[in-house]
Amino acid sequence: MNFQNKTVIITGAANGIGKGIATAYIDVGANVVLVDLDEIAGQDLQKKLGDNSIFVKTDVRKEEDIKQLITKTKEHFRQIDILINNAGVSRFTPLQDLTVEAWDEVINTNLRSVFIVSKEASKYMENGGAIVNIASTRAAMSEPNSEAYAATKGGIVALTHALAASLSEQGITVNSISPGWIQNENYEELRNKDHAQHLSNRVGKPEDIAKACLYLTDSENNFVNGENITVDGGMTRKMIYEG
Fold it and tell me: Using N-to-C axis directions, what is the helix angle for 39-49 and 16-27, rounded to 10°?
């Protein structure tokens, strides 16, 4: 995989899965734009990743912030090749208590942002490129009180293949990844029964999602397009019987 001189924008990059994705792209020689509202964590990560990265504080709920992000990326790295739409929030609230305002916050952060950032970034993907949207296995299955989150993740999967169709003439591939259980910290504190829920016999790590991003954004893999790839250690394929 050759990512030398490629510029990658990653939303929600300061922590968790986004941090793992950013680190992976730096390791393969890409230029990385770290996008997050968490200024302290974002700047700290930028210092660790070095000169091939910049941090741009951005509220992905705001169109003007996103346009400023694209402008700063072009000014600093002069090009945009890859976009990872990873920013997201989860709110698990009993249905009868879920306000329209809280619903809108989740929709605007998780789903609306994917539309706006993809729209703006694709204008400057002059040599083709790749977009990866981080969805979730919750796009296909649910537990109680997850209406807003599930709606956004299902929407991301549908938006992904629509974007793939619209951007095909520009040579831009668009795919999504649906992570399962990804443990961002304190991995060593997980129990044996946590790992045993997975056919891979372990809980996932951010680097598992990062590897999938690298695969989907490698120009040699451009025959994978408009697809949603589940990366969950087989958890959603495991039939569970309770005795």
Answer: 20
Specify the amino acid at residue 119.
Answer: K
- CB under 8 Å to 63, separation ≥6 — which residues? 116
Report the catalytic residues. 149
With 0.85 as the threshold, say if the pTM is over it. Answer: yes
> Residue length, the chain?
243
Strand intervals (E) in 22-124 = 31-36, 53-57, 82-85
Residue 131's DSSP bridge partners are: 83, 174
Domains of the chain: 7-234 (3.40.50.720)
Rounded Cα distance between 73 and 120, Å, is 12
* pLDDT tens, residue by residue, 10-50: 999 999 999 999 999 999 999 999 999 999 999 999 999 99
Task: For residue range 160-184, list pLDDT tens digits in order.
Answer: 999 999 999 999 999 999 999 999 9
- Say which residue the tokens 């293949």 belong to: 161
